[in-house]
Amino acid sequence: MVIRIDYTNVMAETIGERDGILREELLSFRHFVIETHARIQKEKERKFYFAKLPYQDTQEIKEFAKEISERFDYFVLIGIGGSSLGAQMLFESLKSINHNIYDRPKFFIMDNVDPDKFSSILEIIDIEKTCFNVVSKSGSTVETIANFAIVLDILKKRLGERWNEHLVFTTDPEKGFLKRFGEENNIKILHVPPKVGGRFSVLSPVGIFPAAVLGIDIDQLLEGAKKMDLVCSIEEHVEHNPAYLIAITHYIANMRRGKTISVMMPYSEKLSSFVDWYRQLWAESLGKDGLGQTPVKALGTVDQHSQIQLYRDGLRDKIITFIQVERRAEDFKIPDEIPEDIHYLSGHTLHEILNKELLGTKAALIKSKVPNITISMDKISPYNIGMLIYLYEMATGFSGYLYKINPFDQPAVEEGKNFTYALMGREGYSQKLEEFEELYKE
Ligand code: PA5
User: Which reaction does it catalyse (predicted)?
Assistant: First the structure.
């Protein structure tokens, strides 16, 4: 295994019965797991369609991505939520932190409708050399369409008849404004598989097309996801199926031990946006019917100096997942010739200190009986990130059965979107506007 899960520190044997999980409690899910496992295998053509994505043919997408990366120096993704967080995570974890300084195509995301962010991107890119990938499954999300509408105007003014050559749409193959507009204007369209929801779509063209444009090995990414699919498909034992293990330990911690917050804390700057992706997956999938855990982002070691006081000594409402990277592409040794007072550090490397800090933090948490899990990977690679993505998608899907909710819809998100459409005067939303006015009546 290139990814390992250590769950010793969520068990009662380590942190006591008030906060920890009893072995027999974990094993008592055996029958539930066997039944649910069978249901999931049957659901892979429908609700669990994300499980099919690792097996797609990538030839066409790779060829098109190569063409785009050769033609353009800037690649801007216009999209939000499930339509941008996956690509951002792949970019930040698998490309150099300095990619946009030294490499090309330079990559930017227009997600928010914040004029400051919008102008900061426009300031840097050269429109003549920019490809805009507009990603929206529904083809109608206000933020995406607003940003696109301004970009469209700029493209038409600057490029004349060639404006459509600078656009690629990623959207539903059957419906929506982007599909219609794209077809009418001869714009290249990539498809979001209709059965895959936004936050489960990173391994579809939503995530793998931008990744391929940026030179990420998407086949390795999918290979890793396939490997995790295999592990999760053949293994139905609670303790041997990593996705079910994550789901059940979090469920017990949440529902029986009051751990309403799930902190994810990678000891790696590059994995910081993996947590942003996870936050959406966990929150939007499981936050239903008055249930669900609040996912919180932290970064090791930075948040040791900010959050750990609270995690150790504050409300006992948290379960923490650490992500550890065992090997780095490069490491730096602290020299021998350093002042006597700090000499205890000489000969050690930054990577070593990072790992010791993690060990120290875990020891401190064990002392305070705070449940924590460690996921270790040998290195950050497309293969391992593919494994990690699939692991969390499956853990989330399985959690839906535990909480008895549908993890694949997002009615509360849609509600907010619909009020926004109403407020912006979209046709067909007059009743929603009345509802809005009613809510604000004194
Ligand atoms: O997971 C989801 O469904 C949402 O977060 C969506 O991805 C987000 O609202 C963007 O939607 P769309 O892709 O339709 O523009």
Answer: alpha-D-glucose 6-phosphate = beta-D-fructose 6-phosphate
Query: Which whole number is the average pLDDT over 393-403?
Result: 98
The model's pTM = 0.96
- 141 C-beta closer than 6 A to ligand 1: yes
Which 3 state secondary structure label does DSSP give 38? Answer: helix
SS3 295: strand
Alpha carbons within 13 A on the beta-carbon side of 193: 22
Three-state DSSP state, 258: coil
For residue 32, the model assigns a pLDDT of: 96
Of the residues 80, 195, 393, which should be mutated to test ligand 1's pocket, given the most ligand atoms within 8 Å of the CB? 80
Catalytic positions, written as ranges? 284, 305, 417
Q: How far does residue 319's CA lie from ligand 1's centre (Å)?
A: 27
Q: Is 130 in the pocket of ligand 1 (CB under 6 A)?
A: no
pLDDT digits (tens, 9 = 90+) for 300-340: 999 999 999 999 999 999 999 999 999 999 999 999 999 99
Per DSSP bridges, beta strands 294-297 and 188-191 are: unpaired
Q: What mean pLDDT value characterizes the chain? A: 96
Q: Is residue 36 in contact with ligand 1, taking CB distance under 6 Å?
A: no
394 C-beta neighbours (distance < 10 Å), count: 26
Q: Distance (Å, rounded) from C-alpha 269 to C-alpha 142?
A: 31
Best probe residue, ligand 1, of 77, 78, 83 (max atoms within 8 Å of C-beta): 83
Question: What are the φ and ψ backbone dihedral angles of 361, each rounded to 5 degrees?
Answer: -65, -40
Ligand 1 contacts CB of residue 201 (under 6 A): no
Domains of the chain with CATH codes: 3-41+221-403 (3.40.50.10490), 51-216 (3.40.50.10490)
- Say yes or no: CB of residue 138 within 6 Å of ligand 1: yes
CB neighbours of residue 219 within 10 Å: 16
DSSP secondary structure letter of residue 293: P
Is this complex's ipTM strictly greater than 0.90? yes
